[in-house]
Amino acid sequence: MKAFAYINPANEKEAVAALKSGGTALPLAGGMDLLARMKDYIQQPDRIVNVKNALETTAVRTPDGGMKIGAAMKIIDLLEHREIPRVYPALAAAAGEIGTPQIRNSGTVGGNINQRPRCWYFRNEEFVCFKKGGNRCFSPAGENQFHAIFGNNGPSHIVHPSNLAVPLLAYGARFRIFGSNGERQVAASEYFTMPTPQNVQKENILADDELLTHVILPPPGNVKSGFYEIRYKESHDWPLAFAAVVATMNGNNVGSARVVLGAVAPVPWRSEDAERALVGKPLNEATATAAAEAAVRAAQPLSRNGYKVQIAKTAVKRAILQAAGIKTA
Ligand SMILES: Cc1cc2nc3c(=O)[nH]c(=O)nc-3n(C[C@H](O)[C@H](O)[C@H](O)COP(=O)(O)OP(=O)(O)OC[C@H]3O[C@@H](n4cnc5c(N)ncnc54)[C@H](O)[C@@H]3O)c2cc1C
Ligand code: SF4
After folding, report:
1. Who lines ligand 1 at CB under 6 A?
2. Which of 133, 223, 242, 301: disulfide with 149, CB 3.0–4.6 Å?
3. Which residues of the chain have pLDDT under 50?
4. CA end-to-end span of the chain, whole Å?
5. Of 240, 228, 113, 117, which Cα lies nearest the Cα of 173?
6. Span from the CA of 115 to the centroid of ligand 1 (angstroms)
7. Strand 210-217 to strand 223-230: parallel, antiparallel, or no bridges (unpaired)?
């Protein structure tokens, strides 16, 4: 590993100043993704800036009845929070599916949302693809079993790796960002970016001197929510596909809904077709089936990942059944 400086700021202002002070610098949270990339020679920053003492590690209720989560909060603390699992069950379910107890005990909310893609070409120093400043993507003609089935216009075909991002979009969360130009807030849906030739080396809108500091969840209202994840193996592994569903109820019928799929596209993938199939209807087996069909109708799998379409469909259907309180396998 290349030698680097370690900086341990005490607050967000100092952290941002350290990110900006020349050379390449990256924030360090739990370190599981960043240090692995450094050890594998994928990235070699001059400085790493520990954010665990600079950002908040807890979640508190907001005056409007929502929840403000510090980006340095550990995943395990989110999962074991006294209110989050009851008020935002799909978020807690997503957190509970991440890795192993040790991984949930080290990983943070900010690190999870900002972790880099798991594409095996990206993770291997020998493959200098678009994301590492190269001039090609190896996945379309290569081993694309775990790549995107939506949003496949390129130039990259990753799937976004964050479990937490998907229910956060479904609940309508906002992200607070702090940088040298001050603070800003964006909807979670505006944070993640589809790859273009201009931005292909990034997965979100953060500038190099900005940090994600908080996740802000709105009050839940009269919603039913569900989450379902399907993995290749039932141990620590990233999912093949998963879905979070948040339906605001109007009596017995769905007034409005957000259906978001994970591990299927370069960003958490919202399906407005599935949402339309739910609105005005009760949550039951028939509507779950129709919405799941609608969710995958526009899928464009690559040469070796067509099998993921059925898996994504099943994840959506079961997330809706979870929201309805109907037991799934
Ligand atoms: C075997 C294994 C299985 C896993 N399975 C899953 C899974 O199924 N689903 C899932 O979602 N995750 C999974 N993970 C990822 C894990 O949950 C962590 O979320 C992830 O490793 C990063 O969290 P971290 O706190 O260690 O972040 P770090 O490694 O410290 O940081 C990750 C990236 O985010 C940046 N960063 C960190 N904090 C901030 C911030 N506040 N603002 C801006 N940038 C920031 C860092 O610079 C770095 O680039 C798995 C990890 C492992 C090792
Ligand atoms: S999918 Fe993205 S990360 Fe993977 S090889 Fe192609 S450009 Fe690189």
Report:
1. 26-34, 51, 55, 71, 98-99, 103, 106-108, 110-112, 114-116, 161-163, 206, 211-212, 236, 238-239
2. 301
3. none
4. 45
5. 113
6. 4
7. unpaired
Ligand 2 binding pocket includes 305 (Cβ within 6 Å) = no
Q: By three-state DSSP, how is residue 112 classified?
A: helix
* Ligand 2 atom at minimal distance to the Cα of residue 119: 4
Quote the tokens at residue 65.
């009845």
Q: At what angle do helices 307-324 and 89-96 cross, to 10 degrees?
A: 130
Instruction: Give the distance between the most distant pair of CA atoms in the chain.
Output: 61
pLDDT at 46: 96
Give the pLDDT score at 194: 98
Atom of ligand 2 nearest to the CA of 121: 5
Within 10 A of 259 (CB to CB), how many other CB atoms are there? Answer: 29
Residue 69 is encoded by which pair of tokens? 């989560």
Is there a contact between 312 and 300 (Cβ–Cβ < 8 Å)? no
Neighbours of 126 (CB within 10 A): 6
Query: Nearest ligand to the C-alpha of residue 200?
Result: 2
Length of the chain: 329
Amino acid letter for position 184 = R
Query: How many angstroms is it from 155 CA to the middle of ligand 2?
Result: 8
CA–centroid distance, residue 65 to ligand 2 (Å)? 41
Give the distance (Å) from ligand 2 centre to CA of residue 145: 13
Task: Confirm if 310 and 301 have CB atoms less than 8 A apart.
Answer: no
Ligand 2 proximity of 158 Cβ (cutoff 6 Å): yes
Closest ligand 2 atom to 117 CA: 3
* Residue that has been written with the tokens 């999962």 in this structure: 79
The residue behind tokens 């129709």 is 290
